Amino acid sequence: MKKIPILFALFLAIVVLAACGDSSKDNAKKDSKETKGEKTEDQVWNDIEASGEIVVGTSGTLIAASYFDGEEESEDQLTGYDVELMREVAERLDLDISFEIMGIDSMLPAIKSGRIDVAANDIEPTEKRKEAFNFSEPYKYSYTTMAVREEDNSGIESLEDLDGKKAGGGATTIYSQIAEHFGAEIITYGNAPNEAYLRDVDNGRTDVVVNDYYLTKFGVAAFPDFDIQLHPTLKFHPTEQAVVLPKGADTLAEKINGALAEMRKDGTLSELATKFYDEDASEKPKGDIEVIEDLAL
C-alpha cells in the first residue's frame, strides 16, 4: 500500500522536471530572439531608454536629405533634413543619437536584425512595407519626377515612354518599382552618391533617374556641368516620407510621433524643411499630381 504514494511522488517529480525543461527551452528561445534583435514593442523602447541612445540608419548620399557637408565622411559633417530632424527628435526624447551609414537596400533588413533602431532616409511607407514595419507620422510630403537629359528629355514625354529605357536606382526603392512598372530596365547601384546616378544619365549609360521631386531638384542643381534637368512636365505619384521602425514597436512610435507633433506645432519642422529644400516640404505640395493606378507597392 505504501508503493502508491511513492509512485505518485515520482510521477510528480517527472512532471515538474519536464515543466522546468520546457521553461528553460522557452527562456533560451527568448534569449536567442533578443540576441538576434527580435524584440517586443516594449523592449525596443526600454532598451533605447536604458542605453540612452537611438541608432539611426541613413545613407549620407542624398543631397538635402542625408549627406556629408564636407570632404570627410565623419558624423559631425553628416547633415540634411532627415538627419537634423532625427537629431531634434533625439534631443526632445533626452537621448543621444548615432548614425549608421548604409545603402537604402540594407536599411530595412538592418531594422529587422536589430543592427539599427530606426531608419530615416526619405522612405515612403507603402502598404507592403507596413506589413513588416511600423512607421512614424509623415514628416515630409512630395511627389515623384525624373532627372533626364536636357537636350531631349531622354525621349520621355510620358510615363509610358519609360518602356525600354534604362533607369538608374536602388533595387528596392519605390522609384525603381515605378520605372519597372512602365517597362524600364533598372540599373542598380550600391550606396552611391547622387553624382554617380546623374553622371550616367549625362553620359548615356542610363536614360533617367526616377526620384523624389526635392531630391531630384537639388541633385540636378548640384551638377550644372551635366546635360541633365528636372523633367519640365511630369509630376506623378504623390508621396509621404516617415521614420521606419520595427514592427510592433508602438511605444517607440508613440514617442517619436509626440516629438514630431511638437516640432510641427512650434514650427521647427517647417523651419528645417525650408532650410534644406528652400520650400516647406513638411506641407503637402499644391497643384495637379498624377496618381498611378494599379501600382502595387
Q: Overview of this structure, please?
A:
The chain has two domains: 41-139 and 243-266, 3-Layer(aba) Sandwich (D-Maltodextrin-Binding Protein, domain 2), CATH 3.40.190.10; 141-238, D-Maltodextrin-Binding Protein, domain 2 (3-Layer(aba) Sandwich), CATH 3.40.190. The model is unreliable at 1-37 (pLDDT under 50). Helix 3 crosses helix 9. Strand 9, helix 6 and strand 10 (185-188) form a beta-alpha-beta unit. With 297 residues, it is α/β, with parallel strands linked by helices. Strands 8, 11, 12 and 13 form a four-stranded antiparallel sheet that branches. A three-stranded parallel sheet has the order 5-1-6, with helices on both faces. A three-stranded antiparallel sheet has the order 2-3-4. The protein has ten helices and 14 strands.
Name the helicity range: 40-55%
Order of helices and strands: HHEEEEHEHEHEEEHEHEHEEEHH
What would the principal axes of the Cα set say about the shape? globular
- The CATH superfamily of the largest domain is known as Periplasmic binding protein-like II
**CATH hierarchy, class of the largest domain:** Alpha Beta
Q: Gap between N and C termini, in Å? A: 73 Å
Return Rg in Å: 24 Å
Helix/strand/pairing category: alpha/beta
Describe the secondary-structure layout:
Blueprint: H1 3-35, H2 41-51, E1 53-58, E2 61-62, E3 66-68, E4 78-79, H3 81-92, E5 96-101, H4 104-113, E6 118-119, H5 127-132, E7 133-135, E8 140-149, E9 166-169, H6 174-181, E10 185-188, H7 194-203, E11 209-212, H8 213-222, E12 228-230, E13 236-241, E14 244-246, H9 250-266, H10 268-277
Parallel strand pairs: 1-5, 1-6, 9-10
Antiparallel strand pairs: 2-3, 3-4, 7-14, 8-11, 8-12, 8-13
